UniProtKB/TrEMBL annotation:
<dbReference type="InterPro" id="IPR036388">
    <property type="entry name" value="WH-like_DNA-bd_sf"/>
</dbReference>
<dbReference type="InterPro" id="IPR000524">
    <property type="entry name" value="Tscrpt_reg_HTH_GntR"/>
</dbReference>
<dbReference type="Pfam" id="PF00392">
    <property type="entry name" value="GntR"/>
</dbReference>
<keyword id="KW-0804">Transcription</keyword>
<dbReference type="InterPro" id="IPR028978">
    <property type="entry name" value="Chorismate_lyase_/UTRA_dom_sf"/>
</dbReference>
<feature type="domain" description="HTH gntR-type">
    <location>
        <begin position="16"/>
        <end position="84"/>
    </location>
</feature>
<dbReference type="Pfam" id="PF07702">
    <property type="entry name" value="UTRA"/>
</dbReference>
<dbReference type="InterPro" id="IPR050679">
    <property type="entry name" value="Bact_HTH_transcr_reg"/>
</dbReference>
<keyword id="KW-0238">DNA-binding</keyword>
<dbReference type="InterPro" id="IPR036390">
    <property type="entry name" value="WH_DNA-bd_sf"/>
</dbReference>
<keyword id="KW-0805">Transcription regulation</keyword>
<protein>
    <submittedName>
        <fullName>GntR family transcriptional regulator</fullName>
    </submittedName>
</protein>
<dbReference type="InterPro" id="IPR011663">
    <property type="entry name" value="UTRA"/>
</dbReference>
Length: 248
């Protein structure tokens, strides 16, 4: 990377996760010709020092860029620019709603419907490897794409996984659950057990998603696990379109 100065400095107040800001920084260098085709990127260590983020943040950004075809890894040599490809906004069950929206040049948004910490039924605690009647953290949010409501999402987590999670402002704008887990708690989902089904929206969901009844929706039930095979979160997402991402 010949010119290592960032086009846009990382903004800690930006609702986008830090790894997405790193991704944007590198992508800007590629698209503006400052990082030409077949050129070698700076090393992980150099990017960490340049951008003031953790190594795990840089690795996630590079992993995303490699997945989208913008860069390729050459073992023992580093990452090289390969050109990139255009991807639709598609279902990627372990990638957050926010990051997928940003990747596909869509504007993510979120509004808190309900959030609390309290005792949960066995159908919730058991998948999270918690005792019957244990406390869980619960989030229910309305997710937006380009200011249009598209998904009603519920998440349950162990309080030990993300202490103080509800102290964050979930009330407006956009905040990524997976982004917070990654950046604030160093928790990274790497695999999931997923069931996808379809049903009609309830009357409440029709009102939240601003559609005319009857309206069908895709329902994604998922348990995500981290690198140590521990449950990260249990989620249920009700979305209007099969190409809308379920995880945030």
């Amino acid at each position: 990377m010949k010119d290592a100065r960032p086009i846009q400095p990382l903004d800690r107040n930006d609702p986008a996760p830090l790894y997405m800001q790193v991704r944007r920084h590198i992508l800007n260098l590629i698209e503006n010709g400052r990082q030409p085709l077949n050129s070698k990127l700076s090393s992980e260590r150099e990017l960490v020092e340049l951008l003031g983020v953790s190594r795990i943040t840089v690795r996630q950004a590079l992993k995303d860029l490699e997945h989208d075809g913008y860069i390729a890894s050459h073992p023992g040599k580093g990452f090289y620019v390969t050109g990139g490809k255009t991807k639709p906004f598609e279902l990627d069950l372990l990638k957050s709603f926010t990051s997928t929206a940003i990747t596909t040049n869509r504007k993510p948004g979120s509004r808190l419907i309900e959030g609390w910490v309290g005792k949960a039924d066995r159908e919730i605690t058991r998948p999270l490897f918690l005792p019957d009647g244990a406390d869980v953290v619960y989030l229910r949010r309305l997710r937006f794409l380009d200011d249009v409501p598209v998904t009603v999402q519920e998440d349950w987590l162990s309080p030990a996984t993300a202490p103080g999670l509800l102290d964050l402002d979930w009330s407006s704008g956009n905040r990524s659950l997976y982004g917070e887990l990654r950046e604030r708690y160093s928790v990274i989902p790497v695999r999931g057990e997923t069931i996808v089904s379809a049903r009609l929206l309830t009357s409440e969901e029709v009102k939240l998603l601003q559609v005319e009844p009857p309206a069908a929706a895709l329902v994604i039930d998922q348990i995500a696990y981290d690198t140590d095979n521990r449950p990260v979160n249990l989620s249920v997402s009700v979305t209007l379109h099969p190409q809308v991402l379920s995880q945030a």
